[in-house]
């Protein structure tokens, strides 16, 4: 099974990290037996779209982002950047919107994409945004490593 626990160690090495809930369902969609969950379908499409040459957007599967009634759900974050939680994503309709938003997030040092440049579906279905944590001072890092 894929390791879903993230210890955050790779956050320092990528500009943006895209968390994708692989257990999400679409509202009113019944899942039968072994049928692939919509969240897992979204993950697969995003991996295909970002496959070539975009190492600075890392895709990480997670099981639940606590937005279950408005799935599918992703969250994007990065060191020193705002975090966004986005819901109501249909894998087949909105994967390109997620990719576009992830690229905008990556391009901004503070992770704040310009509002008018964001895909409309992302604008209308942003569940939350969270400010970045303060970066530890260099002296704090030096002290911690002793
Ligand atoms: S199952 Fe996807 S947010 Fe809970």
What labels would you give this structure?
146 residues; alpha+beta; Glutaredoxin; five-stranded mixed β-sheet; 5 strands; 28% helix; 17% strand; disordered N terminus; binds FE2/S2 (inorganic) cluster
Number of DSSP helices?
A: 4
When the domains are counted, the total is: 1
**Ligand kinds:** FE2/S2 (inorganic) cluster
The CATH homologous superfamily is termed Glutaredoxin
Instruction: Please give the alpha-carbon distance between the first and last residues.
Output: 36 Å
From the 3D structure, determine the CATH topology.
Glutaredoxin
Oligomer: single chain
Main beta sheet strand tally, sense and closure: 5 strands, mixed
Range of helix content: 25-40%
The overall pLDDT average reads 86
Radius of gyration: 16 Å
Based on secondary structure, the structural category is alpha+beta
Please tell me what the overall shape is: globular
Q: What is the N-to-C order of secondary-structure elements (H for helix, E for strand)?
A: EHEEEHHEH
Spatial sequence of strands, sheet with the most strands: 2-1-3-4-5
In the CATH scheme, the class would be Alpha Beta
Strand content: 15-25%
Low-confidence runs:
1-13
Number of strands: 5
If classified by CATH, what would the architecture be? 3-Layer(aba) Sandwich
């Amino acid at each position: 099974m894929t390791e879903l626990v993230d210890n955050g160690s790779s956050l320092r090495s990528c500009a943006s990290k895209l968390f994708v809930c692989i257990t999400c369902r679409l509202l009113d969609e019944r899942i039968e037996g072994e049928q692939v969950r919509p969240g897992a379908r979204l993950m697969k499409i995003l991996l295909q779209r970002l496959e070539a040459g975009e190492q600075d957007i890392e895709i990480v599967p997670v099981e639940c982002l606590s937005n279950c009634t408005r799935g599918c759900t992703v969250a994007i974050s990065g060191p020193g950047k705002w975090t966004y939680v986005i819901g109501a994503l249909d894998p087949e309709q909105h994967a390109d919107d997620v990719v576009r938003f992830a690229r905008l997030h990556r391009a901004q040092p503070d992770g704040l994409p310009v509002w008018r440049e964001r895909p409309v579906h992302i604008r209308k279905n942003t569940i939350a945004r969270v400010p970045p944590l303060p970066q530890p001072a260099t002296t704090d890092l030096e002290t911690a490593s002793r």
